[in-house]
Amino acid sequence: MINGNKIFRDASNFVKAEDPKYKPLPSSIMRTKFRAQLIFFMCILAISLPCFVFSQTPPPRTLPAKRTMLPVKIDGLLKDSAWKDAAMMTDLIEFRPKIGDKENYEARTEAWLMYDDNGIYFGGYCHEKTKDSIARELKGRDGYGANDYVGIIFDTYYDKLNGFEYFVTPLNEQWDAKMSPPSLNGNSEDFSWNAVWKSGAVIHDDGWSFEMFIPYSAIRFGKKDVQTWGFNITRRRRKTEEQFTWNPINPNVNGFLTQEALWTDISHIKPPLRLQFSPYFSTYVNHYPFNTPGKNDWTSSVNGGMDVKYGISQAMTLDMTLIPDFGQVQSDNQVLNLSPFEVKFNENRSFFTEGTELFGKGNLFYSRRVGGTPIHFGDIQDTSSSFPHINGNEHVVKNPTETKLINATKISGRLQSGLGIGFFNAITSAQYALIEDDQKNSRKIQTSPLTNYSIIVLDQSLKHNSSISFVNTDVLRSGSDYDANVSAVLFDLNDKSNTWNVGGKLYNSNLIGYLPGGKTQTGYSHVVYFGKTSGNFNFNFEEDLTNDKYSSNDLGYFTNNNFFDHYFWAGYHWLKQTTWYNNLGINFNNYYSLLYKEFNDQKLPTKFQVYRTNINANAQLRNLWFVGMFVGYVSKGNDFYEPHEQGWSFRSPQRIQFNPWFGTSSSKKYYVNFNYFFGQRSLFNSPNHEFDLSHQYRFSSKFSIGHDLVFNPARNDAGFYSKYYQEDANGNVVLVNGKPVLQDIIFSRRDRQTISNILTLKYSFNNRSGITFRARHYWSQVKQKQLYDLQKDGTLQPTIHADVAMEHQNYNIFNIDATYTLEFAPGSFINIVWKNQANTFDDDIRYKYFRNFNNTIASDQNNNLSVKVIYFLDYLNFKKKKMPR
Asked: CA 542, 546, 552, 556 torsion: positive or negative?
């Protein structure tokens, strides 16, 4: 793992509340304050720049490619004669925690690289004083854990942007990744990508040795007869957290692949026919106590399908899943959502996570949309909806929360010219809800039509670690529902010295048939940024604008439009080791947000939304602990989304925030990460605390137990409660054009307490099989204390509606995901999974955590047991080609 530094979240708190005595600060004053801070930092920049002297990047090391004609047995022992003629690499250079030091001789690395007509061989010896100096833990495929490791990284197109990584541990566990330019979350390594390759590792008294064989089917490269690849090798020693590379890496320089070595004169290599099949067979048994006469508590199913991978050309690969089965994926972390926006869940389906780095360009693809909640899931119970819905004497018998995925296809790759091409297509079937009236007459209402989802990506690599991209997403629905199309042009440009960066993203959205009369709604959005990306001091300016018509929500995750935002970030880091730290960084953030335009029928005539600023400091100490602190300020502002009604706004309070954290060394048997956040809101004197504790104990290299705790009490929180509609003299809701007439928006002052506990146990029998057990209990309780009517100026006044009752909320969910996995052949698995779920939701707030936990365990539970067999078939094996063992 290259970019293995820990990433900590922004501690910004978006809980809405407000001081009724608040008078809005004029936007002009806020803009003046923001500009003054920008001018101040520009002055610092102007003064500081002459002081920054950037040393020339040394020329890359070069390794001549050596071809072998001799057989190699992949057992980790390096005894075959072929290794004697392989190109050798020694004298690795440290890049963390120290920069530029050579390896100690007693812990030196010796590595060799060669190739033949079938693939690439990489082997070596990692010396240590004793066997006890080797950090090792069985974590399973792609779980690096507390292991020492060695890896090799190839930039086969030598564009210094994209690469393939292969790693092995002393216990011969593998992981691999695709490397690409950093995404929005800062990640540049996609560890969900998996290839089938061979490795061997052996532990000795004075170190450990390893061998890898990477077939050409597990990597992509161009057509030239003689090629030069960028590459590097890396070794990490976890007990000292030292990491080394063969070609030196300077963390002050932007990019890892920009500092790679060269593997030259690779001659006449051709990839084999890449045709691989992964048929699967699965069976499920499910039990839920319906306690209903005539309804069976037990159900079962048998499924079959196949994944296909085909090399269309040397560079392009087709991936297809036919009749997919995702029933064994980890359960979602369900929560009680009080916000105006939907919860964004992680993607656990392997087809949508493996090798999808191209489809993440522009942040337009939220894969949970495919096979997600039907578009009219909630409309069938809304009697004011223009869509089909239940009548007064009807009730819903069944309303599926997911649509059925029929098939999905990906085509992706990168040409010799540096052009990356990605195409994704998926089809979901129509979904229906079952409705029944008082006489047991039933009917169906379509909640989602037959739908086709597609994405096209063109990504051209340019000189100096730069790129330009085009992305188009398309959602086509059968019938009368609207279609959606979004296009984006992205550019990210660096200067020759890889020091200065400018970029942007231009978006256009079209909702076809969305407006009355079947007209199209067209929207626009852009992001432009400029910054300095190399050196100790870096900064970034960014402007985001999205008009009130833009939406990418049909295939992306999109919360709101109509904003005009500005960001400024500046940071300085010290990477030279001192007596008390290995590295230290400080950064400053500014954020200023306006509406793009005022809403129709807006009650409060202002565009100002919020101003935030914070300063962060983080460091790795000499004892390998991580420590940090966050201090933030959020101005009083206007929240146009918490009222759940366009045109209304809630005056959000001033907030002071404080967030210290620390993490001990993960190489120890026991390690702990602790994070504490405190936010004080001016309205109702409302404090918000959050305690995050994550710790793990490793009993042996095979067995470990982990625990994650989140405790989040918030007192006197203010937020949306309900809407109050006009009624006639008889107490009936007044309807105009079939819709109720809004009279008031009601907020509540409430105490909220949330506790989440996750227990994880992992036992590995060997590097091919193991058991994982994950249990999660989540409890969230909301105690309503007083109700308020939202005023047109955004303030709150005690409600005048005595007929509105205060309803508390008490939500529990308990999940178990237990999995046994056996890799019985390369790429072939047997998975046995037990899933359990129980949940309760009521208004009983009398009990605390443990009573709620007991009540949840005692409630009706859904139990699911499944067995799935996946068998990997490679066409080459049928040709009986002699391959390395």
From this structure: positive
Phi/psi region, residue 381 (left: phi>0; alpha: psi -120 to 50; beta: rest), is: alpha
Nearest-angstrom CA–CA distance, 354 and 317: 13
Query: Average pLDDT, stretch 658-683?
Result: 96
pLDDT of residue 880: 53
What single-letter amino acid sits at 409? Answer: T
Token pair recorded at residue 493: 């440009």
3-state secondary structure 690-711: EEEEEEEEECCCCEEEEEEEEE
Distance CA 454, CA 459 (A): 17
Give pLDDT, residue 22. 34
Once rounded to an integer, what is the mean pLDDT over residues 242-270? 93
Other beta carbons within 10 Å of 670: 11
Nearest CA-CA partner of 201 in 269, 273, 151: 151
Mean pLDDT over the full length of the chain: 90
Phi, psi angle pair for 706, to nearest 5°: -125, 155
User: Is the model's pLDDT at 383 over the cut of 80?
Assistant: no
Q: How far is CA 164 from CA 48, 103, 278, in A?
A: 38, 25, 22
Q: What is the dihedral of CA 135, 141, 143, 144, to 10 degrees?
A: 40
DSSP per residue, 795-830: -EEE-S-TTPPP--EEEEEEEEEEEEEEEEETTEEE
Residue 162 identity (one-letter amino acid): N
Angle at alpha carbon of residue 57, lines to 51 and 58, rounded to 5°: 135
H or E segment at 875?
helix 875-878
Where are any strands of DSSP class E within 478-596? 483-494, 500-515, 519-532, 537-546, 563-574, 581-594
Report the phi/psi class of residue 415: left, alpha or beta, with left for phi > 0 and alpha for psi in -120 to 50: beta
In our burial notation (b when 16+ CB lie closer than 10 A, e otherwise), range 7-44 reads ebeebbbebbbbbeebeeeeeeebeebbeeebeebeee
pLDDT at 19: 36
Q: Phi first, then psi: give them for residue 571, nearest 5 degrees.
A: -145, 150
* Cα gap 654→19, rounded to integer Å: 8
- Give me the amino acid identity at 771: I
Hey, what's the torsion of the CAs at 218, 223, 227, 228, to 10 degrees? -60
Cα dihedral 156, 158, 163, 167, rounded to 10, equals 70
Whether residue 97 is preceded by a cis peptide bond, meaning omega within 30 degrees of 0, is yes
Q: Work out the angle at residue 487's Cα, subtended by the Cα atoms of residues 483 and 491, and round it to the nearest 5 degrees.
A: 165
pLDDT tens per residue across span 146-181: 899 999 999 999 988 889 999 999 999 999 999 887
Nearest to 380 by CA among 480, 448, 452: 448
Work out the widest C-alpha separation in the chain, in whole angstroms. Answer: 97
Tens of pLDDT along 52-92?
444 456 899 999 999 999 999 999 999 999 999 999 999 99
pTM (global) more than 0.85:
yes
Q: Using an 8 Å Cβ cutoff, are 689 and 717 in contact?
A: no
Which helix (H) or strand (E) segment is 460 a member of? strand 451-462
Three-state SS at 33? helix
Q: Look at residue 291 in the predicted model and tell me its pLDDT.
A: 82
């072929």: which residue's tokens?
82
**Residue that has been written with the tokens 């409060």 in this structure:** 604
- Distance between CA atoms of 548 and 534, rounded to whole angstroms? 36
Spatial distance between the Cα atoms of 301 and 576, rounded to a whole number of angstroms:
60
Could you report the per-residue pLDDT of 603-636, keeping only the tens digit for each? Answer: 999 999 999 999 999 999 999 999 999 999 999 9
Cβ atoms 795, 649 nearer than 8 A:
no
pLDDT digits (tens, 9 = 90+) for 397-450: 899 999 999 999 999 988 888 899 999 999 999 999 999 988 889 999 999 999
Contact 847, 856 (CB under 8 A): no
